[in-house]
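Is FE2/S2 (inorganic) cluster placement plausible here? Inputs below.
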Amino acid sequence: MAKTHITMKVNGAEVEGLVEPRTLLVHFLRETLSLTGTHIGCETTHCGACTVDLDGKSVKSCTVFAVQAEGSEILTIEGIANADGSLAALQEGFRMMHGLQCGFCTPGMIVRAHRLLQENPAPTEAEIRMGISGNLCRCTGYQNIVKAIQYASAKVNGTEFREAAE
Amino acid sequence: MTPFDYIRPATIAEAVAAAATPGAAYLAAGTNLLDLMKGGISRPTRVVDISRLPGLDRIEALPDGSVRIGALVRNADLAHDAAFARAFPSVAEALLSGASAQLRNAATVGGNLLQRTRCSYFHDAASACNKRSPGAGCDARGGENRLHAVLGWSDACIATHPSDFCVPLVAFDAVVEIEGSGGRREIALEALHRLPDAAPERDAVLDPGDLIVAVRLPAAARNFAAHARYLKLRERTSYAFAVVSAAAALDLDGGTIKSARLALGGVAAKPWRARAAESLLAGASPGLPAFRRAAETALAGATPSGDNGFKIELAQRMVARALSLAAAGTPARVPALPASPFSSTAGALHVA
Ligand SMILES: Cc1cc2nc3c(=O)[nH]c(=O)nc-3n(C[C@H](O)[C@H](O)[C@H](O)COP(=O)(O)OP(=O)(O)OC[C@H]3O[C@@H](n4cnc5c(N)ncnc54)[C@H](O)[C@@H]3O)c2cc1C
Ligand code: SF4
Ligand code: FES
Ligand code: FES
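Reply from A.M.:
I modeled the complex. Tokens:
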């Protein structure tokens, strides 16, 4: 099968590769670039584990051919931490609020939540729940994921995060 | 996935020429096509990537009051275009009720119109399906068919069209602009999708190489902006296809309905315009008695295609509820749970 040469920017770095047209972006990220933080849960566009940012918008990287992303800017979980390597507010939120159990959905959740907070820095609980409705978690029941995102939102906005009484 | 040739045409003319070959398929965002290809349901030998064709990603207000939406406008961008959402709030609500943020960010207008059915036997290569392999039979007929069609179905196929976006569009007389080997033509959206009759393998009246370039909403659709709703019943509150949905819009003159628009989703192989019910509403006073009569009329020809008789009464209730919500007025902001029967209209703006 003839291969195509592609270039794109991933987490700020120019990358290139030779791919078959049928190669999915998520496979290019994981196998060619060894960026295995982006997970494959379903490979049928349902679970959101493979969520990345493509040109500043959340997409499911199992539903994009690598050739479609030619020339794009991609952000994956590996590009979320602060420049000095310390945890970003969202990562800290997931840690502090126990926003993960097995951790399989977490990279997709964090990359999705990152974009949600760019678009809406102070979302309501309903907006957070709708915003992450394309990301499935089999462990947590979402409660602590919502709290983790609220924690990060408060931290970034310099407001106080208070857990709602249960 | 079966290998294929990948072509990225630079112009519409190149795209049409490249896609006229047997075995070719257009690729817009791919949110539907890729899943079909991964499952071996669709096996194009040539994929024509139209996503970078110039000029098809614009929303243009035309001098006659109509609006022209390019085929490559993303579902999220259209729903969040402030002028568009103000003029056509129920179209924005329908878009935001569909799929999830990641999918709406990618999905295009043209791809949404031409997405394929979600019938699970269609998606399972081991099942018999006339839509996938003409003449093979239809495993849905004796299988799990709670969610299948109650209007316009045939013995050959009982599948439904899954789009939310198409439902208010068809209610508002949307027109589809198509570029084909014979040049540019346009048809009413209502005439784009086919009922299955004996040939369910043809979803739409398009010929090989036909490219949707734009969808137009006529100026008259603006008259309904103050009283337009989309209501979608799902088996989960979010991130699910419609069991039944309804787009209802009213142009009110004091205590009288000047004119009404009504369409249903999830009930047939096409977005289902309910014209007889609209005529009944014109001149009536808005309220449950008129809305219930309209609902009965809208479903008058409905018959179960399997274990889905419940959808007929459900659809009637959805019509009456959607009309009541429309009469109450379009909310200032799209509710946090768009189109949900469980959402309070005083909800917050939903950010995709
Ligand atoms: C998990 C999931 C949930 C979803 N939930 C919903 C939902 O609740 N409501 C809803 O309405 N939709 C839903 N969708 C479907 C989604 O809206 C469609 O996948 C999307 O709109 C398709 O657009 P696309 O640009 O990705 O099309 P593609 O996948 O690129 O194309 C789809 C089809 O249209 C053809 N095509 C595309 N553009 C053109 C054109 N301009 N001219 C001619 N042919 C063209 C392609 O050849 C292909 O056959 C869901 C999808 C998924 C995966
Ligand atoms: S209902 Fe239509 S799509 Fe579903 S199995 Fe039958 S023929 Fe195929
Ligand atoms: S792996 Fe992409 S959505 Fe599940
Ligand atoms: S933490 Fe296990 S799937 Fe979310």
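Short version: The mean pLDDT of chain B is 95.
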